[in-house]
Amino acid sequence: MADDPHAHTPEHSLLGKPAPYVDRYDASLLFPLPRFPKREEIGIRGTAPFFGADMWTAFELSWLNPRGKPQVALAHITVPCETPNIIESKSFKLYLNSFNNTAFADAEAVRERLRTDLAEALWRGSDRAAGIGVKLVAPELFDREPVHELDGLDLDRLDIEFTKYQPAPELISSDATQVPVTETLTSRLLKSNCLVTGQPDWGSVQVRYSGPPIDQAGLLAYIVSFRNHNEFHEPCVERMFTDIWKHCHPTKLTVYARYTRRGGLDINPFRTSWPQAHQVYDIRTVRVIDQLIAHL
Fold first, then answer.
1. What is the pLDDT of residues 112-134, one digit of tens each?
2. Active-site residue flag, 236
3. Model pLDDT, residue 21
4. Nearest CA to 83 among 154, 19, 30, 135?
5. Which residues lie closer than 8 Å to 86 by C-beta, 6 or more apart?
6. How far, in Å, CA of 227 to CA of 219, rounded?
């Protein structure tokens, strides 16, 4: 590995620091962060007990065509959770800004540039040669994407008392004496904070599982317990997955969080214990993404 992974920590990134506006293409702006420290923190060593992907949506992507005319598109990026790294979000925004005054032959050239640069940063340090998914949506297709909420039984209907605002896995449990069920539970009350800046990250979460019935009140209280927790989106969802898997003993489990975008970028982790096609919705805007996670 060319870089020392221990030097790539959030504290070394530009998060919470002044940064120059670079409007000419510069792939070096991407700042990869290793996944392993946070996974070790929740007891994952070696092969993870899940697979899935991080679905990114870039709402602020623009470049110049060969005649100097600005072009715009949405970018949907699918990052396998097997990548050794994630990309720090501010560095991703700065990297996208560097396209603004750069000329490309066409949208396909932009897509290929994104795919190559992001894959290099995400897989850096790995002995695997794998890629990521990048899809551009042209402006004339924006209005084909309707609003849709996460499917499932709404946990927020429960009127219960909340007293814990740091992750409290002891709140969740299941009843092994009951007949196993298959159900999908959702909440719009997910909130955590940026690991570095402490700024709030708002989201909705969907838990789909098969197994002994999970106590719904306890699960809602557990989701709310992330409210004052400082952590990036990806490890938040992995923490939820491992806690539910350990304390509720499902035979199948999927945890999917849809976060509100900040700075024109959203990050939506999806973790599952079994292969499946997945339809991914942006519930906060009038845009929807239909994606099949091809690597599952």
1. 999 999 999 999 988 876 789 99
2. no
3. 67
4. 30
5. 32, 33, 35, 54, 79, 122, 232, 234
6. 14
Position 224, amino acid = V
Q: Among the options 81, 194, 236, 248, which is catalytic? A: 194
| CB 270 within 8 Å of CB 254 | yes
| Per-residue pLDDT, 197 | 85
CA distance 261 to 63: 21
Is the pLDDT at 283 greater than 50? The verdict is no
159-173 b/e with 16+ CB inside 10 Å = b? eeeeeeeebbbebbb
What pLDDT, on a 0 to 100 scale, did the predictor assign at position 286?
Answer: 30
Tell how strand 288-289 and strand 70-80 pair up: unpaired
Q: List the catalytic residue out of 201, 243, 266, 282.
A: 201
The one-letter amino acid code at 272 reads T
- Residue 248 catalytic? no
What is the per-residue pLDDT across 33-68, written as a single tens digit (0 to 9) for each? 999 999 999 999 988 999 999 999 999 999 999 999
Instruction: Please name which of 229, 238, 240 lies closest in space to residue 195, comparing C-alpha atoms.
Output: 229
What angle separates helix 233-248 from helix 216-224, to the nearest 10 degrees?
150
